[in-house]
Amino acid sequence: MASVMFTDCSSSTAAAALLLPSSRYRVRHSVLHSLWSMPLQFAPVKPILLRTTATISHASASPSIVTADLERAFSTNTSLYSTAMAAETSAKIIDGKSIAKQIRDEITVEISRMKDTVGVVPGLAVILVGDRKDSATYVRNKKKACESVGINSYEVHLPEDSTEQEVLTHISGFNDDPSVHGILVQLPLPSHMNEQNILNSVCIEKDVDGFHPLNIGRLAMRGREPLFVSCTPKGCIELLHRYGVDIKGRRAVVIGRSNIVGTPAALLLQREDATVSVVHSRTTNPEEITRQADIIIAAVGQANMVRGSWIKPGAVVIDVGINPVEDAKSAKGYCLVGDVCYEEACKIASAITPVPGGVGPMTIAMLLSNTLTSAKRMHNYK
Ligand SMILES: Nc1nc2c(c(=O)[nH]1)N[C@@H](CN(C=O)c1ccc(C(=O)N[C@@H](CCC(=O)O)C(=O)O)cc1)CN2
Questions:
Q1: End-to-end alpha-carbon separation of the chain, Å?
Q2: Is residue 209 lining ligand 1, measured as CB closer than 6 Å?
Q3: Which ligand 1 atom is the nearest neighbour of the CA of 21?
Q4: Is 186 a catalytic residue?
Q5: Burial degree of 168 (CB within 10 A; 0-12, 13-18, 19+)
Q6: Can you tell me the distance from the alpha carbon of 191 to that of 194, in angstroms, rounded to the nearest whole number?
Q7: d(CA 287, CA 341)
Q8: Given phi > 0 = left and psi -120 to 50 = alpha, else beta, which region is 314?
Q9: Of 20, 138, 330, which is best to mutate to test ligand 1, by the most ligand atoms within 8 angstroms of its C-beta?
Q10: Between the CA of residue 147 and those of 140, 186, 207, 262, what are the distances in Å?
Q11: HSE-up of 358 (CA within 13 Å, CB side)?
């Protein structure tokens, strides 16, 4: 369970203790509050280059992105570049919801082609343990997304007090089942379970979440290829590609160093030839480091932590955070905000993901993409 913050960026660290579904990738607020909220001077610098919308619509037509990890959605040698918008104009919105829809459409076509050609239908097994409402919602959305593209889904829902061994037994069954091409265990797991043991037991050929240490290890090594890249970081990079953001040679800052987002996001950016810094709860002067970045990926789980003054004019901002904040105007009494103070950032960045509707939908789209990749690989289908 997570606390609810206030929507106003200036009071972002004042938590009101209401009980709500947890935000993702949560870190200890008390540590972050003191270490991350020191004000810094604003220093204007050069904006990053973005391709124009003409290139983006070209990108939309390409189906190639779903066929291989990190494959480029479109050629990078187009000369349609423009300088980013000036600081006083609003940032371009990086629309994860619509890109995710495009990707689902591309996957639907691929799956139908594979079924018609070799008679194989990809299968995804999902294991959910416990009664967290947010996890149940994510699993439901994953099942719906599978249905929408033609992937078979198999769900095991275990009670909160299940044993680790029960989870391992189900994983072992799915590891041996040829109709299952992808296995995922919804996180977080109940605290009495050893997450590491459980994630290690998913066979790497079916590790569509990309959480197995061998897949993460391969991602970290030059000359090695992971079989799968975890879905949220992969979705972040996919958004940058599809919006024509140059990564090569750029300075990137990843805020947060979790195993499932921050660390793989930093590794992916490095593979794309960015110069990468990771800012975390023990970083001194996080604002100063972040303000040098052309590309920022914020994945820390603290509402509105990244203020406008942290952002270099023209930078591209990918906000992974999904944090509930108090909102009297909403029927639910809360709304979702990111780790970045959107109202400030959109005046300074050249492009930014919204929350909701940014990275979140991409996580599920990338899961579908990984499941398709897995089925193709197992059946040697191009
Ligand atoms: N096994 C895994 N566990 C978890 C993962 C994961 O990738 N694999 N990631 C998160 C949760 N998650 C998927 O599992 C996820 C979170 C959020 C969204 C999403 O679409 N968010 C929407 C807003 C949703 C809302 O209204 O509540 C958005 O940002 O627009 C999708 C998937 C932790 N666990």
A1: 44
A2: yes
A3: 27
A4: yes
A5: middle
A6: 8
A7: 13
A8: left
A9: 138
A10: 11, 18, 20, 30
A11: 29
pLDDT for the residue numbered 333: 95
Residue for token pair 């041996």: 176
Pick the residue whose CA is nearest to atom 12 on ligand 1.
Answer: 138
**Read out DSSP for 3-37?**
EEEESSGGGTT--EEEEEPPPTT---HHHHHHHH-
111: phi then psi, degrees, rounded to nearest 5:
-70, -40
Q: Ligand 1 centre and the CA of 138: distance in Å? A: 6
CA 46 to CA 86: how far, in whole Å? 10
Strands 323-326 and 81-83: unpaired
- Residue 74 pLDDT exceeds 90: no
Q: Which amino acid is at 21?
A: P
Q: Does ligand 1 come within 6 angstroms of the Cβ of 261? A: no
Give the distance (Å) from ligand 1 centre to CA of residue 38.
30
Residue tagged active-site, from 95, 207, 209, 294 = 209
Ligand 1 contact via 357 beta carbon (within 6 Å): yes
Q: Is 31 exposed, middle or buried (0-12, 13-18, 19+ CB in 10 A)?
A: exposed
Sign of the dihedral through C-alpha 344, 347, 350, 355: positive
Closest atom of ligand 1 relative to the 209 alpha carbon: 8
Tens of pLDDT, residue by residue over 265-305, are: 999 999 999 999 999 999 999 999 999 999 999 999 999 99
Which pLDDT belongs to residue 7? 56
> Which pLDDT band, with edges at 50, 70 and 90, does 9 fall under?
confident
Q: ipTM, 2 decimals? A: 0.98
pTM of the complete model: 0.83
pLDDT in tens, 332-345: 999 999 999 999 99
209 noted as active-site residue: yes
Whether 105 is catalytic: no
